[in-house]
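May I ask for an example protein's residues together with how it folds?

___
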Amino acid sequence: MRLISILPTLFLLTPSLAADSKPLLPCTIYRTETNAYYDISPIAVQPLVDHKKAHKDDRTESWHARGYDMGTNFTLNFCAPVIETLDTAVGISESLLKNISAFYTWKDKVYSIGQVSTELVFRGRELSLNYTNGSPCDSPSTHDKRKLKHDHDDDDEDDDDDEDKDDDNKKKDDDDKKSDKQKSSKGDDDVRRKSTLISLACDPNLPSGKAHISFVGSSPDQCTYFFRAKTMAACGGVGEPPTGLGAGGVFGVILIIFLAVYLLGGIAYQRTVMHQRGWRQLPNYNVWASIFSILRDIVIILTSSCARLLPRRHGYNQLPGNGRGGRGGGRADDENRLIDQLDEEWDD
């Protein structure tokens, strides 16, 4: 009865073994609804080694997106920091400059719009990548005073207004420096920081490792920036992720559990119900005994056949026969002839 009580434990052990899997690799995600595995690391730009490309098709700079009416362009990377060297960024400490994954330049200042992240997220059917903890956002009071827009036609219409604007810009820059100092003196929890949201779309027509990035827009306070990236890496591949137990491992676990249930359950039945003892406690003992007997006979036949092929010592049984009376008869005649010859020699 104790053996029967062990069986439920074995069934509970199966899902725990199958669920024991390693975490997914960075920049990858597995969607169970469609049984698809996504890996966008092929479009991540890797830094140059000794100012040289590791592979022929590697990029020498990060990805760029045109800002259009924003008055600036954006530089970003996927699941990795930008490979450009940044000496400074507004509101970012020197130790975190190497972790910037997206930024833009405005009035000779670098603004970070997100630190590196390797976690992909599915929101419905949309695959997205989110960067956070960028440069501090403008406060609502100063946001209307400073917008990332410039109209080249206005420069030719009113020169006097331009001079006044230059003076205002200097004052604004001074105010920005004061506000940056105030923001840096506050804790990180009290400061709203810029972030980036990248929507990844499938484009099977693009070559592997290539992407087309477009700027979609920003929030009204220019604190969050939205991009759309088309790439073949976002199409995903059908199959299980390369982590945890594969198909062979799951099959092996199921087979082990089946054999354990068959063996322990059969022994429990033969012992408690059929009152068998010894080897006869095994389930289907007669079947396994006959199989073992057949295998034993096969081994004996094979070993005896191989023994005949081995060279033998020359003796009486190796005398050549004359072919009369069959194989056995010829050998007997030879033996009789040899005995008669020996008898004659003994009489002499």
